[in-house]
Design a protein that fits this description.
Strand content: 15-25%
Number of helices: 1
Oligomer: single chain
Radius of gyration: 22 Å
Structural class: alpha+beta
Transmembrane segments: 14-35
Distance between the termini: 66 Å
Keywords: Membrane, Transmembrane, Transmembrane helix
Length: 61
C-alpha cells in the first residue's frame, strides 16, 4: 500500500494541528482534575466538602 506524495503532504499538514489539539485537550482535562478535588459534593442530600487531606470530607449543612 504505497502512499503518494500528495497524501504525505496532507498528512504532514494535518499532523501539527492534531498534536496541538491533543495537547489542549489533555491540558484542559488535567486542569479539571486538579480543581475537582476541592469541590463540594452532594451525597444523600447532604453537601460534603474536602478538608485538609484528600478523601476526607465534612458535613457543612
Amino acid at each position: 500500500m504505497a502512499v503518494g506524495k500528495e497524501e504525505l503532504q496532507i498528512i504532514k499538514g494535518i499532523l501539527p494541528a492534531v498534536g496541538i489539539g491533543t495537547a489542549v485537550v489533555v491540558g484542559i482535562a488535567l486542569m479539571g482534575l486538579a480543581f475537582t478535588g476541592r469541590r463540594v459534593y452532594a451525597q444523600d442530600g447532604q453537601y460534603l466538602v474536602s478538608v485538609r487531606y484528600p478523601g476526607q470530607s465534612n458535613d457543612i449543612r
